[in-house]
Amino acid sequence: MLPVNDTAPPPAPAADRLVEATRELLWERGYTGTSPKAIQQRAGAGQGSMYHHFTGKPDLALAAITRTAEELRALADGLLSGPGTAVERVTAYLRRERDVLRGCPVGRLTQDPEVMADPVLRAPVEQTLGWLRVRLAEVLAEGRANGELPPSVDPSGTAATVVAVLQGGYVLARAAGDTAPFDQAVTGLITLLAPPA
Amino acid sequence: MLPVNDTAPPPAPAADRLVEATRELLWERGYTGTSPKAIQQRAGAGQGSMYHHFTGKPDLALAAITRTAEELRALADGLLSGPGTAVERVTAYLRRERDVLRGCPVGRLTQDPEVMADPVLRAPVEQTLGWLRVRLAEVLAEGRANGELPPSVDPSGTAATVVAVLQGGYVLARAAGDTAPFDQAVTGLITLLAPPA
């Protein structure tokens, strides 16, 4: 007889729990504010387990940042390569559900001096935001080619504007303690990109 | 005979040097990364002098943040209330010289958990970014009323977009280690606001 499937799922392996705990702590407290001890406590893993799987905090942080960056990229690409016109896809990407007051888990790392000073930790941050600008520029170029956007639109420049509005929208929302300025900034950009007829 | 004016200027009073040192350190290292000792060293002031003038690090930080916020506000208002059409004034504000790789000395504080958790330190950050959005909305409303901007432009929404592009442009520049994405994001926005004829 097969075992009945009514028990709790087995706990994730320790290495996985350590990476997940690091992701959460990086988002909440930043790199400098995240201690190895806090990671072990959140993961329910001991110091021996941590150093069995990872050489230390930078190694764990790299695994955490890489996983977060891959998720964000897959999510963005799903929307930008999905159905709809170019403007609809950019709008879907701008409007996707976000945890606005926590900010962007990748973009926030640019404000962490220790992450920016370490070329290994900084690489996935730079690559993810760079990839996003290139992918958005491709979609905006499509929209210009098919007449959705005016010929004056420069795809690379506008792509940088789109990413900046999101990253800056998080800053405004945190300053205000309210998601409204983020939504206003996004709506303002969409109105400029595609003025109502 | 009057004294000849060829000597070095007298040193600034200690209270002033302490505030300036705190401003620099907040910008470079953030609040959490700034110790009272580092402030005293940079200011060339002793611990006794510091606690004679200020109750402690939060009190000094408030003086430093308030002074920075007042400067930014005066600079923005000078450009937004200066000569030129509405679009020219918003463009002048977007294009003003900035220390892009160091980021916005006010906006960066939103990424500092200790500053955001203290209502007294957070207030000048919230007020400065809020004031900027209101002032930009006034100028954009002027531009809409006189036909420079299309009727579809919502002044408040577009004002949030303008501030977000600047704050997010700093994030992109830091991620890339290069000011180019900041300039691209600003140019992209200006092209959307005022398409070349």
Description:
The structure is a homodimer of 197-residue chains. Helices cover 68% and strands 0% of the residues of chain A. The model of chain A has no long low-confidence stretch (mean pLDDT 92). In chain A, helix 1 (14-29) crosses helix 4 (57-80). The first copy, chain A, is mainly α. The first copy, chain A, has a single domain (14-193), classed as Tetracycline Repressor, domain 2 (Orthogonal Bundle). The first copy, chain A, has helices at residues 14-29, 36-43, 47-53, 57-80, 86-95, 113-117, 119-145, 155-176, 180-193. Chains A and B meet through helix 7, helix 8 and helix 9 of A and helix 7, helix 8 and helix 9 of B. Chains A, B: Residues 12-72 form the HTH tetR-type domain. Chains A, B: GO terms for molecular function: DNA binding.
Q: What is this structure's SSE topology?
A:
Two copies of one chain form a homodimer.
Chain A (H helix, E strand, L loop, with lengths): L13 H16 L6 H8 L3 H7 L3 H24 L5 H10 L17 H5 L1 H27 L9 H22 L3 H14 L4
Helix pairs in contact in A: 1-2, 1-4, 4-7, 5-7, 5-9, 7-8, 8-9
